[in-house]
Amino acid sequence: MINFRQFEAGPDPFGRKYQILFKWLQTAISIRHADTVDVKFVLVDENGAQTQKTIALPHADLQRVCRETVRSLDDPWCARIAAMHLQHLIETGEDMEKDLVTMLPADLRRHADGLRRAEQTAVSAG
């Protein structure tokens, strides 16, 4: 299962790899007046340069996916979904110019399904 607190991602389209560090997770109502769960990461490239990315997960979409998958909504699950999306962004170069990336419902569902499969595999192997 993905460790969302510290992991390596890449290569990006230019061949770079990044060390990713989880910084925080919080409800964006308090910081941006948005109904999202924001997950912030620090990216450190191979030369030591740092950037930060915040992945915003829309609350209504999170609730919908949880209902559809019969899963509870909790912080570790949100952080893992955001980490998976960040990996996707790095590997594709998509939205890398943005500091704040709001996930689309289709991406949220795709990553939730991927995480569910990974969890099932981990349980079966253990």
Average residue pLDDT: 92
- Quaternary organization: single chain
For the biggest β-sheet, the strand order reads 1-2-3-4-5
What percent of the residues sit in helical stretches (DSSP H or I)? Answer: 40-55%
Task: Point out poorly predicted stretches.
Answer: none
Which radius of gyration do the C-alpha atoms yield? Answer: 14 Å
Largest sheet: 5 strands, mixed
The fraction of residues assigned to DSSP E strands is: 25-35%
Kindly describe this structure.
The protein is of the alpha+beta class. The protein has one domain. It is built from four helices and five strands; from the N terminus they run ββαββααβα. The chain has helices at residues 29-32, 59-69, 75-92, 105-125, and strands spanning 6-9, 18-27, 36-45, 50-58, 100-102. Strands 1-2-3-4-5 form a five-stranded mixed sheet. Strand 3 and strand 4 form a beta hairpin. Helix 3 (75-92) crosses helix 4. The chain is globular. The protein starts with 5 loop residues before the first strand and ends with a helix.
